[in-house]
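Slide 14.
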Amino acid sequence: MTQAPTATGNAGAVYLDIDRITKVYSTPTGTVRALDDVTIRQRPGEFLSIVGPSGCGKSTLLMIAAGLSSPSSGSVTAAGKAITAPRTDIGIVFQSHVLLEWRTALGNVLLQAEAHRIEKGEADRRARALLKSVGLEGFEDKYPHELSGGMRQRVSICRALVHEPKHLLMDEPFGALDALTRDQMILDMQKICREREISVLLITHSVAEAVFLSDRVIVMTPRPGKIDRAIEIDLPRPRRLIDRDSPNFTRYTREILEMFLARGVLRESP
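Slide 15: predicted structure.
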């Protein structure tokens, strides 16, 4: 039997261990295999991005890592514990900010603190510090309809971090933003991760975004989603936007794009 490709970090501790998982859905017209024999091992403190074409199972993989969905076969553990139910030790950010319209920016961040029963004064201190760190000092009492799209997404990231999780899961969190706001959010995310001991799993369609933020990028095949290759990103930190024009950055992005070209995900005109 041919061994399936794996995405395994350097030798040492493993935080998230996704071991040979498969996910099959039943539909009225038959079964759909979304993921096929996927193995990923994420190191503690690693920023890990997953890129791949639409429908390859990236979001399904994140939902399984969050405990919000179960694999059809295989196993998933985090910090050595089997994931068999929705996890409470994570922060999670989706493409939509999902803020409560009747709560202020501060109130939305504190919602997560309330769920984790963090002492009120400590929760308020953390929430205000997070909002300040992403440039929202002075906007604590604004409601979602008074904030721009980028501001709302910053609030959702603060909400995901207020209980100080060790693992942050993000599913296309910047996909709906304009280009300039997206660049600022990427810089903010880099700063947040630099200041905290946190492992991040990012799902994205943007190759440049993945290379800029990540320690390692996992490239997936078209459905059924498998691991095509895992690429270590050896670029100095902190990274600047101008670094996207560097030869090394271009080499990484081209390597990933060439995989998509080889698989027929992208087609260049002759």
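Speaker note: The chain has two domains: 1-83+190-270, 90-165.
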